Amino acid sequence: MTDSAKKPPSNGDDTSCRTEEQQQKVLSIQILFTFNKIDRIPYDFNSILFQINEVLALISPIPDKLAAKHYSNESISRYLISQKWNVQKASKMMNESFKWRLQYKPEEIRWEHIAYEAELGKIYRLNFEDKQGRTVLVMRPRFQNSKSIESQMKYLVYCMEKAIMNREEMIWLVDFNGFTASNISLKLARRTTYILQNYYPQRLATAILYDPPNIFEPFWKVT
Length: 223
Hints:
It contains nine helices and four strands, in the order ααααααββαβαβα. The protein is of the alpha/beta class. The protein folds into two domains: about 15-105; about 110-220, CATH 3.40.525.10.
């Protein structure tokens, strides 16, 4: 396998030959593409599964408690999409993501670990979803109440983990009303971008900014 993505020979995409399980798998992948506003799946079903299996052969094993969620077709497809269907790059990205999860343990962050960060409601999840069933996170930077970058990132990761629980994507609604430069650091913005891009690829569907300052334009273009 070369570094560039390969498209294997197609055997056609005859839906009448698929088992019920196969139909469910391709439907889930089609939904993922719809969420990501991709007009059509670039390869037929067999070609997509071929690339997913290639990734599976290259990624490192992870504990069973993470395998069901992070070895799914949907999960692997997100990494492939983010890397433009390059199997080598997607596999490397997944391995780095797994390494981060095993070290950072985002699924073990509990409310008591981030309660102080949440006191003023600078990030909260709406109790309803958008029309496409996506979780909406509201962010209000003016209520920043912490100086610790590590603590702030732990809170953000906690909120994202909750937002994508049983969901493919999330929406960010960022209210900059009353924001001042003292409310957030560029280091925090860079860390947020890095984590979102590398460990939660294709999870942020839309970021809606209300009254954003000019200083954040480059940051949001990247994400």
